[in-house]
Known about the structure:
Order of helices and strands: EEHEE
Number of strands: 4
Largest sheet: 4 strands, antiparallel
Shape: globular
Distance between the termini: 47 Å
Strand order of the largest sheet: 2-1-3-4
Radius of gyration: 15 Å
Oligomer: single chain
Helix content: 10-25%
Amino acid sequence: MVWYRFYHLGSDGQFVAPEEISALDDLSAVKKARTVLNAYGAELWHGRRKVADVPPNMRAQSFGRRVGLFGA
Length: 72
């Protein structure tokens, strides 16, 4: 197993909270990182090497009631 560091980004694009991820390789680490909930995106690092930019993932909010044109 290899250890990666997942850095949550704040609304200003600065690192907010690091999180450790273990994975077999870069591809596995990226797949795991894309499942982590984050509001403003994140970066995945292995040591001093940036592995990936991770897009925002707010799946948890989709469980609430939707109000609007098609979600009444």
